[in-house]
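Field guide to reading this record: the first block holds the primary sequence, the second block holds the structure written as discrete tokens, and the final block holds curator observations. Each block starts with its own label. This record concerns Serine/threonine-protein kinase receptor, catalogued under organism Sinocyclocheilus grahami.

BLOCK 1 — SEQUENCE
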Amino acid sequence: MFVTWLTFAVVWCTGGSQAEVETRECVYYNDNWRTEKTNQSGFERCEGEKDKRLHCYASWMNSTGTIRLVRKGCWLDDFNCYDRQECVATEESPQVFFCCCEGNYCNEKFTHLPEAIAPAVKIQPPQPGPSLLGVLVYSLLPFAILSLALVIACWTYHQRKPPYRHVDISQDAGLPPPSPLVGLKPLQLLELKARGRFGCVWKAQLLSEYVAVKIFPIQDKQSWQNERDIYLTEGFKHENILHYISAEKRGTNLQMELWLVTEFHERGSLTDYLKGNPVSWPQLCHISASMSRGLAYLHEDLPYRVEGPKPAIAHRDFKSKNVLLKTDLSAVIADFGLAVCFEPGKPPGDTHGQVGTRRYMAPEVLEGAINFQRDAFLRIDMYALGLVLWELVSRCTASDGPVGEYQLPFEEEVGQHPSLEDLQDVVVHKKMRPVFKDCWIKHPGLGQLCETIEESWDHDAEARLSAGCVEERISTISKTANTINTSTSECLVSMMMTSHSDTVLPPKESST
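BLOCK 2 — STRUCTURE
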């Protein structure tokens, strides 16, 4: 037994081959450690101080799954090895594994068990619950958005609502609105003359002349633009068509107004004139001839002219209110907001069949059975022309009978404000037309004019006269009965003089 007391620790682990080094184990002898060689006699000693503790250790390498021992032996006092019964390396993946332990032959077996380091868990603090204010905001937000949308929609509707409602000429138009832009020079608005579906008409002064200004709200821009384009059609100029001066925009945004400036006629529309004035036979002939002449020019297709070709144009809202009278009672046709132009080789554009004023709508328009061809639109105008001629005849003093108060067509049958269904029943189903009085039929001139009117408003659109044919017939009738005056006696004399003569009216022409 070897017992040696030294003042310092000596670790003596030398000598021997690699095999010998790899087989060294640690043995504890009487408070000291020594290394035992199992393949050789004798021992290599590990000596140390008595109050020091020595331990066993082992080091090795692990290369591609093959374990190669580097060294085993004694280890100087190290608190990291205290009370370890097994030699276990705990590093994750070192280049050389190392372990130490305390006890005889405790390093005979060695293992690698890395310490499992649990990943750090980040503990999220609990989410705070929704506040009462947040709940109220999210609950009321949809209602607030909906309310705002309704307010904006109402405001937009009132801003875009047309400022002028449609007022029939027979109705009281009420107080006129204040004249806009009165101080604007050189065009100054003076007096409101009429209001209708597409705006109002003012008497205005342009420098030293009076003009008419038709004012459209911005909502009726399409009508304003269409009427302007019709007036600007190449070659569109005739003595019985209202003379166009200019078109312009006034104001900005929703307050914008669209102005159409034309010549002014003090007598106003044929409707206004007939309401306050009966007409004599010469006046009737003059008005009806000039009116039919203007409509014939409107319908005519004139491709070969020095001033430029003119396409056929359908008015689509022909009525006595849209016929103006000059000082000499010559008629001029106005209001082309619904007119459609038929240029050769070009479609007429976006057109709708059931447009215009109900009272003057042809049967095919009332029942929605219009053929969207040029001739069909022109025949619709001819039906309306027949009604306007009836209005003239009803206020003529040439017949041997009293002249009644002015009435609109079908006013006696359906009243002043008929519905579409009322007119469909009277015009389409019952095929009724305004009534001719017996005294009109007995008058030679009025009788022939009534025949022309009947052929103009024929229920069969293809059987209606053309505007050119009506113009010729009125001219012939006027020449034949030019000696007729308003007195009863002269009417009788004229009837006797013409009863023996055969008056030949111009033959019916196709409206093509």
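BLOCK 3 — OBSERVATIONS
The chain is about 30% helix and 20% strand.
Residues 132-160 form the longest helix (29 residues).
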